[in-house]
Each structure stands twice: as structure tokens, then as C-alpha cells.
């Protein structure tokens, strides 16, 4: 800064230095976020934070097989959207209407309050729990994912990293282990059962399903038909 009294450049004040450091910190955080998210737009994911946590906490075996979107049944894609996030094709990471419903509801879980994009951010990078810190980081990563990945990639990653049974992650592993067939051959009935256990795959079973899971799967199939089936997702890019 230039001083008119002395004719010399004066040192910046402490407020200016604090603001500069805050700006540099935010810039660094933004750069690291992009660096952590952008490469996975094209690369197959070797694992996720949730899988690593399960290996570390319980030393249990993980079955995970990355599978491209075109080798996953469109019936499973539309089933998880119908179950978890029906506005997925049109929102930008957050379903604001469902968030407001969740805040005003006394129920513990309101369908759609956490979008598929948010779940991808959480499963890939974060940990379980409901702290404000985790939700804040999740929101930032969700914005990055929505900005840097196309919608089809977000859904592809979700179908690969979601847990469908204890230690079984992704569509291919779930289909092979639970139905004895590749993921591209899943029927709507089978897909609806897989989608039905997503809220708590540690406690709910696909085979044999409980009455609750069977009824939930039936509701999901009804929603799939209401949405128009797989064509509902054909414009994803």
C-alpha cells in the first residue's frame, strides 16, 4: 500500500493480511476439492470411503466389482431413482422441497431428503453420522460432483458403490451373489428388491425378503411405472 505522507509503500494492515490468508485458504480448499472429484469423472473407482471403513473396523471381506453403466440393467437404474431420488434428472444436487419436508417432519427418514448425488459424495469421501461438519463437507462435495460430472456418471457411480447386502457393494457383485446372474440381466422385480434394502442393507435382506422389504419393493415398482420406466432416464448425459 502507498503512503501519501512518506512517499513510501507501507506494509498492509493486519486486517488485509487476514483477508488475504482467508482467500488463499478458500482457494486451496476449492483446488483440492476439484482435484479430489474431477478425475473420477472418467476413471473406474477402486474403492470408497465406506468400503475402506468397513475393512478397517470389522476386517470383513468386501465384494466389489466396478461395472460400466451400459452393463447394468436399466431396470435397476430406474428402480433406485424411483426409490431414493425421483427428482434426480432435474435437480442440481439437492431436493429443496424434500429437505424442507424433512425439517418439518417428525419422521426419522423422509424419502428423497438425501439425493443420489449427496449419497455419492458421502459414500466416496466421508463417514457415517449426522454431524454438521460432515453435512457441510457433503454439501460442498455434492456441488462439485454436480458441476464436474454428467448426471449419467453420478448414477453410474452410485450403482457401483451402494451397499446392497453386508459387504456386497455395487450392482454387479449384488446381482451375482444374490441372483446368480450379471447385472445387465436384472429384472424389474429383482431390481426393486435391491432398491428396497438401500436404506439399511445391514439389517434388511434381498433374499429371502421380509414382508416389509416385499411391500416396499412393490411400492417401488408402482413408482417406476408411474415415472414411465427406464425412458425416464434416457436424456441423462
Stretches where pLDDT falls below 50 for ≥5 residues?
A: 107-112
Overall average pLDDT: 88
Radius of gyration of CA atoms, rounded to a whole number: 22 Å
Shape: globular
SS-derived structural category = mainly alpha
- Give the N-terminus to C-terminus distance in angstroms: 50 Å
Element order: H for helix, E for strand: HHEHHHHHEEHHH
Q: Main beta sheet: strand number and arrangement?
A: 3 strands, mixed
Question: What is the strand tally?
Answer: 3
- Percentage of helical residues? 40-55%
What is the percentage of strand-forming residues? under 5%
Strand ordering within the main sheet: 1-3-2
Summed up, the helix count is 10
Overview of the structural elements:
- Helix 3 packs parallel to helix 9.
- The longest helix is centred in the N-terminal third of the chain and has 24 residues.
- This protein starts with 13 loop residues before the first helix and ends in a 10-residue tail after the last helix.
- The chain has a 3-stranded mixed beta sheet, with helices on one face.
- A hairpin with a 2-residue loop joins strand 2 and strand 3.
- 54% of the residues lie in helices and 3% in strands.
- It is built from 10 helices and 3 strands, in the order H-H-E-H-H-H-H-H-E-E-H-H-H.
- The chain is mainly α and 237 residues long.
Amino acid at each position: 500500500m502507498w503512503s501519501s505522507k512518506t512517499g513510501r509503500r507501507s506494509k498492509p494492515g493486519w486486517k488485509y493480511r487476514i483477508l488475504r490468508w482467508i482467500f488463499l485458504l478458500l482457494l486451496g480448499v476449492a483446488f483440492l476439492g476439484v482435484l479430489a472429484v474431477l478425475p473420477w469423472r472418467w476413471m473406474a473407482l477402486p474403492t470408497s470411503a465406506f468400503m475402506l471403513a468397513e475393512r478397517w473396523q470389522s476386517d470383513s471381506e468386501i465384494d466389489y466389482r466396478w461395472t460400466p453403466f451400459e452393463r447394468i440393467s436399466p431396470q435397476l437404474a430406474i428402480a433406485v431413482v424411483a426409490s431414493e431420488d425421483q427428482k434426480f434428472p432435474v435437480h442440481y444436487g439437492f431436493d429443496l422441497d424434500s429437505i424442507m419436508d424433512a425439517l418439518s417432519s417428525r419422521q426419522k427418514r423422509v424419502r428423497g431428503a438425501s439425493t443420489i448425488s449427496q449419497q455419492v459424495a458421502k459414500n466416496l469421501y466421508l463417514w457415517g453420522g449426522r454431524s454438521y461438519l460432515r453435512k457441510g463437507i457433503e454439501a460442498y462435495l455434492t456441488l462439485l460432483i454436480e458441476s464436474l460430472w454428467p448426471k449419467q456418471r453420478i448414477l453410474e457411480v452410485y450403482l457401483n458403490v451402494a451397499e446392497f447386502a453386508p459387504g456386497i457393494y455395487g450392482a454387479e457383485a449384488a446381482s451375482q451373489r444374490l441372483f446368480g446372474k450379471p447385472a445387465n440381466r436384472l429384472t424389474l422385480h429383482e431390481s426393486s428388491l435391491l432398491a428396497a434394502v438401500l436404506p439399511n442393507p445391514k439389517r434388511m435382506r434381498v433374499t429371502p425378503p421380509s414382508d416389509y422389504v416385499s411391500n416396499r419393493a412393490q411400492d417401488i415398482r408402482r413408482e417406476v411405472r408411474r415415472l414411465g420406466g427406464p425412458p425416464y432416464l434416457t436424456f441423462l448425459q
